[in-house]
Amino acid sequence: MKNEKYKLIVFLEFLIVYVFSSFILRVNYFTLSPFVVKFFIFYFLVLSLFSSIKGKQFLFSEISRLWIYSFTPLLCYLFFTIGIYFHILIDSRFSYFIPFLFSNYYNLEYDSRKYITLLRLFSFSLFILGVK
Questions:
Q1: What is the pTM of this model?
Q2: CA angle at residue 102 from 73 to 24, to 5 degrees?
Q3: How would residue 4 be classed by pLDDT, with cut points 50, 70 and 90?
Q4: CA distance 132 to 77
Q5: Model confidence over 58-103: pLDDT tens digits?
Q6: How distant, in Å, are the alpha carbons of 6, 10, 59, 60, 61 from that of 3?
Q7: Membrane spanning segments where (predicted)?
Q8: How far apart are CA 52 and CA 71, in angstroms?
Q9: How buried is 51 (Cβ within 10 angstroms: 0-12 exposed, 13-18 middle, 19+ buried)?
């Protein structure tokens, strides 16, 4: 039971760091846009539903994987800075790509996570395409 509490604390810490770093780096227009917030609320609910089928331990391990997304505002800021210096346009949604790769493929355990991995890949492709 202790392990699940720590994983929930890590998730709550992710939310706090994500929101504050978005405002500090002034990328909240992109990282906290209505599309992003609605998408990730829906994504979190669907991910929780499918993860809970395999049990509470699996659910908490999937939720704790989302901490890596706290680096997204920093990546978004770096992409904008690179775009200003080199005059290239990088969509802010691609700043979620690197955290997606790390969170999805870190400690893969493919046998137990193959369906969740496919669900996350499908949902991320919808996110990149901007499907509402």
A1: 0.81
A2: 10
A3: low
A4: 24
A5: 888 888 788 888 899 999 998 888 877 777 777 777 888 889 888 8
A6: 5, 11, 12, 9, 9
A7: 9-29, 35-54, 66-90
A8: 26
A9: buried
The mean predicted confidence, pLDDT, of the chain is 84
Rounded Cα gap, residues 83 and 77, in angstroms:
10
What is the predicted pLDDT for the residue at 2?
A: 58
Q: How far apart are CA 58 and CA 116, in angstroms?
A: 10
CB atoms within 10 A of CB 126: 13
CB 34 within 8 A of CB 91: no
Q: How confident is the model at residue 9 (pLDDT cuts 50, 70, 90)?
A: confident
In order, the DSSP letters of 19-76 are HHHHHHTT-HHHHT-HHHHHHHHHHHHHHHHHHHTT-HHHHHHHHHGGGGGGGHHHHH
CB 62 within 8 A of CB 10: no
Contact 52, 59 (CB under 8 A): yes
20: which residues sit within 8 A by CB, 6+ positions away?
Answer: none
